[in-house]
Every structure is written in structure tokens, then in C-alpha cells.
Amino acid sequence: MRWVPALGVVVCPDHPPPPAETVALSLHALKLLKAYRRFDVEALAALRGAPELETEVESVMRRYKRFM
């Protein structure tokens, strides 16, 4: 999957990416980002992922923040 920070969307490998910066995104990171949208703060605080996953999600969110 590819994350497009400028558009705030994820594109699958079957579709060509738009002419904007794209970032590789693992399925686990996508699931965690979806959880961020659904859960309240207390539930999110209880979530723990592998350090690599948390680093990946943090990187994606930092890139997205540049376009907000």
C-alpha cells in the first residue's frame, strides 16, 4: 500500500499512485491508523505495537501534518 500525505489517502498496489509524494505503508500501520479514528483516548493509550510499527505510524503522521 502507498500513503499519499498530500491527499490524505491510501492507494493499493493495483492503482497507479498520483503525481505526489507517496510513502510505503504496511497493513499493520494502516490498521493502527484506522484504530486512531475509531477509539477514544483511553483505548488508544492501551494500544501497544512493535516499536517498528509505532515508528512507521509516527513517520506517516508527521508527513501528513505537513499538509494540514
Descriptors for this entry?
single chain, 68 residues, mainly alpha
SSE run: EEEHHH
The tally of beta strands, per DSSP, is 3
Q: Tell me roughly what share of residues is in helical segments.
A: 40-55%
Radius of gyration: 12 Å
- Report strand order across the widest sheet: 2-1-3
Mean pLDDT metric? 84
Cα distance spanning the termini: 21 Å
Main sheet overview: 3 strands, antiparallel
Percent of residues in beta strands? 5-15%
What characteristic shape results from the CA principal axes? globular
Unreliable stretches covering 5 or more consecutive residues: none
Category from helices, strands and their pairing:
mainly alpha
Summed up, the helix count is: 3
What does this structure look like?
It is a single chain. The chain is mainly alpha-helical and 68 residues long. Helix content is 50%, strand content 12%. A hairpin with a 4-residue loop joins strand 1 (2-4) and strand 2 (9-11). The two termini are 21 Å apart.
